[in-house]
Amino acid sequence: MSVTLDQIRSCLEGVIPAVLATCATDGTPNVAYVSQMHYVDPRHVALSFQFFNKTRENILANPQATALVIDPVTAESYRLSLLYLRTETEGGLFQSMKARLAGIASHTGMSGVFKLQGSDIYLVQTIEHVPGQAIARPPSARNLLNALRSASRRLAGCGELDQLFDTVLAVLAQDFGVSHALLLMADAAQERLYTVASRGYSVTGVGSEIAFGDGVIGVAAEYREPIRINHMTMEYRYGRAARDGAPRRAWPLETDIPFPGLAEPHSQLAVPIVAGGRLLGVLCVESPEDLRFGYDDEDALVTLAQLLATSVLALQLQQVGEAGVPETTTPSPSSPAAATVEVRHYRANHSVFVDDDYLIKGVAGAILWKLLQTQAATGRCEFSNRELRMATDLGLPEISDNLEARLVLLQRRLAERCPAIAIEKTGRGQFRLSLRGRVRLSDVEG
């Protein structure tokens, strides 16, 4: 029975390295392991070109090669007869392989070692099954097409961004069987991602950050390509990545928010959320199991991320053109008996502290400070998204720069860390600043 490349796609996961045999012009054979064998289409594979070694020398002189690949689940082996065609140094395939290699390098702490020079394209001439003992492949636990159908229906029913964020993580748990997931939105100007929702962790990590290029999440954002790691190569903690990737500044108080995530993830898949050529964020799933996410899972989550991107844009567009500044100036309610809290704002990066406890920074911090100042000066507690967009002092890069996501982030951080202050939705594009105690404001130059 003939074997097709599609049928043995799981052999190209990279968990068990492929073995490549080449031959010099004088007939001397050479056998080497290859770090990446990438599925291109039903007739072609690509190998990563990182160093000019004996394999590379042989292929340029004699384009015939033979590869041995092994299925990491069943242990079945296949022999591929390959013909070298060309090397690509740009384009979608090259970027995808470069991103995956960068993800592995960052995951293992070897970013300065691995560097892709090109993607070598090979024609798969024949595939031969190598006889031997094999393990039966377990049946698939999920119907991913049905899961996507359910996800499409549920995401389309979301009318608010915070509802959308929670729903996509619920979909992953209930329909995709993924217990640990993170949703991060992008701050393109700062080249960082900030967590807006998580599921399956002891801490939510809302407000924690990752720089573009750090770990599988940061690399997925940098290259806008899905990154999948299916085995733990060495311990890698995102908390460390967030600190190492942050610009070095001398702040009087700690501003790190613990990043959620498994201490020892054996499988990770990070998928960029892209719409109209713009990076909106990254959806990341992980598991303590090896080989948890395969090619089918990657394809399904890429599609889910596209559905999510469409929903995010639709909700953002609904906010544009909403009513302006509310007319009411009803004072925000506060309890006279409640304790006074001090809110300090540091102008340099808009860090906000509540009684020495770090709350938020950046655009979200600037938004909170503006709301509190307005309330203190006028007594107004009703606000709109539209007036924030029109406020030139907030430094919003553009209308489409995830303003609503920043408001969701701010609302959730306040709920977690500062019960004296709350942001409450009052309608589409409308919200209320609720003070449940007395607030003393302090603006600091540093």
Task: Note down, in words, how this protein is organized.
The strands form four sheets. The chain has a seven-stranded antiparallel beta sheet. It has a six-stranded antiparallel beta sheet with strand order 10-9-8-13-12-11, with helices on both faces. The chain has helices at 54-61, 92-108, 144-156, 161-174, 215-223, 238-245, 295-319, 362-378, 385-390, 403-417; strands spanning 18-23, 29-34, 37-41, 44-49, 64-70, 77-88, 118-130, 180-187, 192-199, 209-211, 227-229, 267-275, 278-287, 340-346, 351-354, 357-360, 382-384, 421-427, 430-435, 438-444. Residues 233-254 have low confidence and may be disordered. The chain is of the alpha+beta class and 446 residues long. Strand 18 and strand 19 form a beta hairpin.
Spell out the key features of this protein.
446 residues; alpha+beta; six-stranded antiparallel beta sheet
Short description:
This protein is an alpha+beta fold.
Outline the secondary-structure elements.
Layout: E1 18-23, E2 29-34, E3 37-41, E4 44-49, H1 54-61, E5 64-70, E6 77-88, H2 92-108, E7 118-130, H3 144-156, H4 161-174, E8 180-187, E9 192-199, E10 209-211, H5 215-223, E11 227-229, H6 238-245, E12 267-275, E13 278-287, H7 295-319, E14 340-346, E15 351-354, E16 357-360, H8 362-378, E17 382-384, H9 385-390, H10 403-417, E18 421-427, E19 430-435, E20 438-444
Parallel strand pairs: 14-20
Antiparallel strand pairs: 1-2, 1-5, 3-4, 4-7, 5-6, 6-7, 8-9, 8-13, 9-10, 11-12, 12-13, 14-15, 15-16, 17-19, 18-19
